[in-house]
């Protein structure tokens, strides 16, 4: 029987130490920042639901909001701990409660299941000690991910189906490897674009493209197969080669990518989760107290720098 969702868990999280509350808030804000980022290819954003029929921006915001205390609880549970099987089991139990809260808030829609796994591990990795770099946090998260979850249910997920069919790692493989697509593509692109003087929204959009261009995204594979994945990767690379969202040519290529994914009814959900992880790790390493969404009028600027 799954562990029932307990109100005392939420209350305990709200009473958790300051660092744990801060990490929980940053994780929640990273999800909000990812959801509100516009215009994203095939994904929910301020324009609408993208390739999704069961999701909306309001629903994504609602989902992220209910997850905040669970992330804080994961941070509090991991604080001062070394990765071991007991910690893995405790974090997994909190994660399952978080999933149930998510499904209740969204009336059954899967808005952030992958993000609960990814950000939950990173929050736990960040809570182990202060002043860590992104690489150290990712390594700590990987150490936790390697342990099995004894309390897990034997349920075959979409990710399991894709991993078995195509031999890709999925979210579990990404975590066990120390989040290479975040460290090698998401974060470097975000920071390079920021250093070049682009608006934060453009920096985040290009970071997303850098991840899409390299990741074997299981969401794309499950809905569209290997051909859809290859098309998305190639078109994302084309946007970056054209200069990214900060150039008129790049924006034109990005619109083509968006139309392609929306027409196929597929979206790079795995890449979106890793963008949220990128935003979270960047904020933690920079010792930010909050993450803001870009509130600029994208309709008027069309993503110009």
Protein architecture, described:
This protein is mainly alpha-helical and 305 residues long. The protein has one domain. Helices cover 67% and strands 0% of the residues. It is built from 14 helices and no strands. The chain is globular, with a radius of gyration of 18 Å.
Beta-strand percentage? under 5%
Number of helices: 14
Low-confidence stretches: 1-15, 296-305
Q: Please, what is the average pLDDT? A: 88
List keywords for this structure.
67% helix; 305 residues; mainly alpha; disordered C terminus; globular
SSE topology:
Elements: H1 7-14, H2 18-36, H3 57-78, H4 85-106, H5 113-127, H6 134-145, H7 158-166, H8 170-176, H9 180-195, H10 200-212, H11 218-241, H12 248-264, H13 269-285, H14 298-301
Give a concise summary.
The chain is mostly helical and 305 residues long. The protein contains 14 helices and no strands. Residues 1-15 and 296-305 have low confidence and may be disordered.
